[in-house]
What does this fold into?
Amino acid sequence: MSTTSAAPLVMGVVNVTPDSFSDGGRYDDTDRAVAHGLRLLADGADILDVGGESTRPGATRPLVGEELDRVVPVIAGLVAAGARVSVDTMRAEVAEAALAAGAEIVNDVSGGLADPEILAVTAAAGATYVAMHWRAHSDRMQDFARYDGPGGVVEAVRAELADRVAAIRSAGVAAERIVLDPGLGFAKQPEHNWELLRRLDRLADLGFPLLVGASRKTFLGRLLAGPDGAPRPTGEREAAGLALTTLLAAGAAGAPVWCVRVHAVRDHLDAVRVARHWRAGVGAGSGDGKVEP
Ligand code: PMM
It folds into this structure.
């Protein structure tokens, strides 16, 4: 699929997991997950991202057979309904089965570090590959949330993504099939996420489209914490995520964003439309310099 577009595409999340932080357990059987995906499709999702492994901080990994059983039938069902599907996996075996079931995109939160064979599998299928910035599996990723070098988190993430691009290219994935992602919340403290969002231009100048996944994440909950310091619960972070989508779609980060990965597709599409309409008017002006009463 094309990785160029003017406004961000909206990718809807279909987590077929018992334990994802944002929607864990709600869609953990095939029928419920397909029904959820179909709702997101009807709401206008450009891509449906189907995942069978929770990556919330501290999560333990499913067995490969469990992950296959979760995602493959859901992907097949959604592809049959006409959806463009990405598979959210770090495993070559799961990516291969998902591509055979009709997925077009491999969304690998480890950027090829967890299972390097996934790159050759993606290349062989001619699929699009999303490489997210990642340092370690979820059970210990927060031990790696340190960015003490010059340029802090932004330059570290940029350099580490550039290394991944080299590996992805040498495995045979075409440059126009690569998408990069800052990996918000993965080995990041809240302020690291905000710095990355403000400086997406530094990641964009690596020359690849960007995907951003901020929806319902803890750094938004922390921003919205009440007087007692407790983060705002997951289900009450949507408005903050929408504000962020609007800013990104309006170009506030100084770089175009190719795609936003979200849970509430319809609302985020509305935000993208507002931003697109705003952008279309910026610079157009009334022409005569007069101010209407
Ligand atoms: N975040 C999660 C899972 N997969 N994929 C990409 N490319 N980027 C992300 O930020 C990302 C991801 C974790 O969030 P979830 O539990 O809401 O799915």
Residues 13, 15, 20-22, 55-56, 88, 107, 109, 130, 132, 181, 184, 211, 213, 216, 261 surround pterin-6-yl-methyl-monophosphate (CB under 6 Å). Residues 152-170 form the longest helix (19 residues). The domain at 9-280 is CATH 3.20.20.20 (TIM Barrel).
